[in-house]
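Late entry, evening session. Most of the bench is empty. Finally got around to the prediction I had been postponing all week. Sequence below, unchanged from the version circulated by S.P.
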Amino acid sequence: MKKRGVSGLIQRQAVSGSSYASFTMDEIRRYGRHLIMPEVGLEGQRRLKDASVLVVGVGGLGAPVSLYLAAAGVGKIGLLDFDEVDETNLQRQVIFSTPDVGRKKVEVARERLLKLNPHIEVMAYETLINSENALDIIKDYDVVVDATDNFPTRYLLNDACVFLKKPLIYGSIFRFDGQVSVFYAGKGPCYRCLYPEPPPPGLVPSCAEGGVLGVLPGIIGSLQANEALKLILGIGEPLIGRLLLVDALSITFRELRINRDKGCPVCSENPTIKELIDYEQFCGTRVSGEALDAARNSITPLELKRLLEAGEEIQLIDVREPVEWEICRITGAKLIPLSQLTSRLHEIDQTRKVIVYCHSGQRSALAVKLLRELGLTNTYNLAGGIDAYAEQIDPTIPRY
């Protein structure tokens, strides 16, 4: 029998006594492959049925996490997401199908989970989680799964779970690389112990900008679901104090040890943060003076269209990567990837108005900021990037 290394981590009133739910004949047959495992058995399956897990983010990671938790028989699953299903989701978010495009993710996911397992309860939260509602939502769940893709929400979930003494199962993906860990204050480090400060806004590209191998969310999400089941069942060794690094290209797994930060502002013995804060401001994503400057140094897709139709002398600079350039481009643009920008300044003509664009406007905003700091003040960012231009102005340009 495998070592029961996490026994007692999740304290629940339903561990013994008559509060255990009984199983129907259908459930016994459904969970048969669990019941015959000594590490699970009837007691373990009852733990699963009495457990509750909140999955924040019903996207690439949230899809496999929620599907496997539902199949395993976790009695109550909460799904929190505010987005609608988009065609670009279908390459990796396997809980959705083509007819679902345009529908709310939590609505579709709830239907799918109940079709998979009608013996469970699925709660759908069609909302943005924030400092006002996080504690009220999380307090009713035993385990929280971070399946998000932005830093403000990651820090918010971490702090809320520290305050409520809930385990947080973290996962992240980018291109071919993934990370998994379990943050459980009092048992080990929290997310802030690993990442005390968020990176500067725009420095870390999103999956929409850098891409992600379609199967990678399935690998990482499955590992997150595995950690949730281990915590509920009280078996194995959870990834507390350990960060698992997954490289899908070389199919290698590396592990880094994470130590508790004695000076952590949230989980240390003398915390300086004792309540939820403004996480947009903390991560620098709220509109600031710098953001307002960036807005003033931008033009809209419609304004670019008018400039082109008027025959005004402008230079279009595309700062995306060559693989993106091959997918689509704006006619007349010159490709100078962001990483090559400073070494190719001589190719930028300041006698004309320079319009810089990328996929969504984030990388090009950084490019414009850099160019203006270097004295190229006749430079402007295309707000929303080529994606917004394709959507609003030129539907013949492929969107990705």
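Two things to note before I forget:
The domain at 13-282 is CATH 3.40.50.720 (Rossmann fold).
The chain is about 35% helix and 15% strand.
Will write this up properly tomorrow.
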